[in-house]
Each structure stands twice: as structure tokens, then as C-alpha cells.
Fold:
Amino acid sequence: MVDDAIPTPDAGSRPLAQRVRDRWRRLPLIARIALWIVGVLFALWLILFITKGRFLKGPFERTLTSRLERSVTVDGDFQLYFAPIAIKFRAEGLRVANLPWASKPDFLRADLIDSRIAPLSLIFGDKVRVPWLELRNAAVDMEWSRDHRHNTWTLGDPDKKGEPVNMPLITRALLAGTTLRYRDPQLQLGTDIAFETAKARDTRFAQAISLSGTGTMRTLPFTLTGQLLSPNATVSGGKNSLVGRAVAGATVVDVTGTLPGVTQLEGSDLRLVAKGQNLRRLFDFLGAAIPDTRDYRFTSALTKVGQEWRFTHLKGRFGDSDLAGRMTASLPNGRLLIDADLATQKLDIIDVAPFIGYDLQRVATQGASGAIETVSGAPRVLPDTPLRIEAIRNFDANVRYTVKTLRAPNIPISDGAVTLTLDHSLLTLSPLTFAMSGGQVSSDIRIDARQQPVRTAYDIRLSPTPMGKLLARWGVAESGTSGTIKGRVQMTGLGDTLHDSLSTANGRIAIILPAGSMWARNVQLSELDVGTFVTKMFSGKLKQPVQINCGLIAFTVRNGVAAADPILIDTRKNVMTGRGGFSFKNESIDIAFRADGKKVSLFSGQSPVGINGYFAQPGINVISPELMARGGAAAALAVVGTPLAAVLAFADVGDAKGAACGPILSGANAQGQRTKRGNPRDDVGRGTTAKDEAGKGNKGEAKAQEKKFLGIF
Structure:
């Protein structure tokens, strides 16, 4: 009973500390650890918040100097703490030294930096998020080294390869007396830009950051102006509005639209308008190379996705040609890559000229004659503009381009398409296709500028094409012409111009004529006229079409000189053979054709008909020395005999040997040609020029042959 009278202590009467300890002990171990961590972090946060983190100034300077491997100092006040969640960083007189090779002593210096930094962005993601940044009297120096291996903004190991610019995502900013300097010796680009912040006049916006600058690109001066309006959160809460302009001579680029943040280009919604006199100058700024163009104007939507700048809904014109599509510019591995899908509905032939290598101004003012130059007293039509080897080394490209119609007199080309690939100075146009007179031309061209001299491989194929359509403008009638033409060109040459490449080319050219008919009109002799040529070869005016059994016009090309190998056309009545060739070196032509009858003819004037002159000025020699000799013989027979005897001078004994069409249709060379009986032919060349064959005889005969046939070489 005595024990029962003693009162038991009530839990609520225990001291508070005791009760807390009891509850702490009852918590699981993991919960106690978590609470300890939270407590420590809160204590650190509280210490930093109260002291503003000023005591971290020394460790900050030492740590960054060690990690960045360049001097980092703060001359004035320093603050680094959580306020309350975002990191507040404030430094007065901050200086980050530059690398030894740079032209300025400091990469960054600022009288004041005041910022808010999202802490998780320092741990996760590849970009630091900065909701607020204030810079006063700051200067940033961004430079590439001369070998383009290092730059000033790639921090850390000074031998580390330079990385592309990775700007922090700044939502809002206040800039006063802030400048940015950029230098790139490889692009020959230098620019200085000044930034200032002022109160915006538009009530929708709180402030406006204006920018202005000057610079040079490949010695060409340019100016930059612009304004970025930051939204007034109490009024609009919208995105930053950007208006900018870049001017370089006649080249003007305007950009308008919105940005999510001051430097937040991801998800931007911009509109670009570019205009000028020469699109090449605009691409020079991108670090890419294209030929000259006439005046242009393009519009495009513009945004940034990842590392890509995307130009979509691109539309405009250059010269008298239209262009539409999309283009993407990116910097994988620090190297410019252009990827594009482009289309043209009507392409003017003048706008094509510089892409082949012709002088744009000459062609634009003189027309087709502007493509012809006089060199050493002879006309030259193959362009001699060098490939911009140094320029194409700086970028890569994947471009797909289509053309619906080519606007050009007497050039029946349409529905063109090309896939252009540039990979470290290896340029390929494969496939390059277009429709021509009912046929299709397919090409694969490979230009290897990785080696010197530049090596170009050509593979051009012509599918069976109606001869009447292809040769209509030269006097071949479509009605009555059922023959077709197909062909192939395979050559390889050295040189950085089209002329030099072909002047050193080796390979083969073959044009095949399967069975069919050909009817030509006898028209003027004012130019190289196929109709006139055919009528002169095959007994004057044609009363009916020429019936072709098979034909081959082929040349073997050695060091830029093409020799007939063979020229052999078998028709129902005749066998036509040819000798000679042409030169890519001086663009001269000297080919002699002869048609021999398969049956006896008493009134044949068939003697060699020549094609001579130059690529730019070809001609037909229809009054050959052999024909003159026959005329002289006829006159002599008429004097000493009777007029009927004069006919003997024009008699053709009809001993022409029909050709086997198998070797012809397979494109075999002269040594592979056979008669219908299967015997080797002895009336076609063997892949040598007349000059080569002349060298096999005595010196006097060689000189005569060389002068008579191919003195042009």
C-alpha cells in the first residue's frame, strides 16, 4: 500500500530536452542521418547568408586559378551565398588573365559582376543558367590562335583543343560600358561590339539592351546594330524581342523576332531577311565558299536547336532565278557543316555560268559570247577560273538541289538534280542528273582537293536519246528520224580549273548510234551544221532518210588530246569512217570524215569532209583537196577524151566493207572493230592521232602528214 501511494512521474512532466532525445532515438537511423545533413546544410546556408560569403574570397581566387590554369583575382568586394535558393555571386574588380599567346592581357575584366545562378545547372546539363546578370565596365576578349587549335574561352589546360562558344543561358541582363572583342585569324574576322542597357520606351518592356559594333571580314568592313528588349513581367511576361542589322557594303542582313532569354537562343523565333549584290560575300561571313552570283534577296525563318542553326521556309531569288528550301548550319567537332535541301523552278543560264567557272559580269553583259576568251590569238570556251581550294578546306557540306526548268535558248535541259557532298576538301557531285531532249544525262564527278594538284574524275552517261530532238537545231528533221544516241565519258585530269583538268585528262569518250534512220535538211553553211554535214557526206540533198545500221564515234584521250578510236558508222548504202581528233589544251578540232559506198556509183563526189576550227568556232570544210583533185581529173579527161569520160573521175567502185555491229554497239576501240565477215578492219584508226601515226614514217612524210591532218596539236 505504501508503494501504491508513491506517484509515477508523468511523461509530460519530463524536461523538454529529455523528450526530444527520446523522440530522436525512436527515429530510424536513415532519418536521423538525413536530418543531420539538412541541419548542417542549413547551418552553412545561414552562415553564408549572414556573412554574404565574403570569407570565401581567398579560396575562390586560389581554387579558380588552379582549375582554370590562369590567374583569377578580385580587387574589391566579394559575395558568394544562397539568396535564398539561387546562388548570388558579386565581385568588384574581377580579372581573369588571358593565355600567353593572346593579344590582350585579360580574357575578362569587370568593375562589377552581380549575378544570380541556378545551382542545379552547375551540376546537371551542359549550360549554366543565369536568371540575372549585371555587368559594369566589363570587357571580354575572345580570340582563336593562328593555327586555330586554341582559343581564349576554353578554360583549363592551355594545351586543350579549343571548343566552340558555349554561352550561359542568361534570362535578363543589365549591361553598362560592356564590350566584346572577337578575333579569328583563319576566317580573317575581327569585331568589337559595345553593349548598353537603358530603360525601354515601350511599356511592354522593362529595359532595352542596345548593341553596336564594327569589324572586318577578309578585309571587308562591316557594322552591327541592334536592340534586345527585355519583357516587363508586370505587363507582358513575354519573351525578349530582338531587332538587329548587319551591313557590309551592299550586303544587308536584318534579323527580327523573339528570344526566350538574353543569350537563350534555343527555341528562338526569328525572321531573317538578306539582300545584296553577291551571295558569295554573305557565305564568306559563314566561312563557306560559293561562286559569285547576281543580286539576291532571301527571307527565312531562323531558330536554334541544339548545335544547329536552322533556316527554314527559305525563299527568294538570285539574278533571274528563284530558290526555296531549307538550310542548317552547325559546328560538329568545331568544323562548319552546311546541310541543305534546295529547289529552283526556273534557273537562268546566266546564273549558272559562275558555278561552271565563267566570269559572271562578262556573261551577264555579253551573253553567250562572254564565255569566249581569246588566248594566243585563238578562241577559248572552257572556263579557267580556279577552284577556291583554301576556302573549301574550312567547311563541309551536304546539299541536295533540284531544278525544274533551265531558261536558256537552244539548250534543251530540264528536271535537273544534284547531290553535292564536301568532306574535308573532297567534293563530289553524285549523282548529277538532268533530262535532255527526251533522254537522261547521269553523272558522277569527284574533285579531290586533298592532294595537289587537284584530281578530278568524270563519269558522264547519256541514256538513249532521240536523235531528231537532240540535233533538231542543227538541221536534223524529227520527222523521218528514228535513230537514237547514247554515250559515255570517262576521264581523269589534274588541275584546279576545268580547262586545266581537261587539258591533262586521260580516258575515253564514246557515242553509240543503234539502228535507226536519220533525215537532214540542207541548210546554211554559216556554222557547224549537222544537217549540212550529213547531206554532204551522203550524196547531196537527201530524198529519203539515211538508214543507219549502227555507228560509233569514239575518242581515246591522252594528256588532253583526243584521237578518233574509232569513228565508224555503217548505213544501208555507205560506211563512214573518220580520222583525227581534237585538243582540250587549245580547244582546236581537226577531224576528217569519209563515206565510201557499198555499191558502184558513177556520180560520187564523196571525199573527206572536215570539221575544223575551235570549240568556240567550229566549221565544216566541204571543198576538200581530194574533191578538187577529182574535179581537175574530170576536166582533164573531158579535154583529152569525151565528156562521158569525165564521169570516171567521180566513180566509186563500191568496195566499202560493211561493219559488224557487235563491237560498235559495245563501244570497242579501233582494234576491236570487225567487218561483217569477222575480219579486222584496216580503215579505222588505232587510238592514235594522225600526228602519232605520221611519226612512224620517214621524217618528210611525217611533216607532211602532221601539217595536213593535225598541225593544230
About this structure: The longest strand covers residues 205-217.
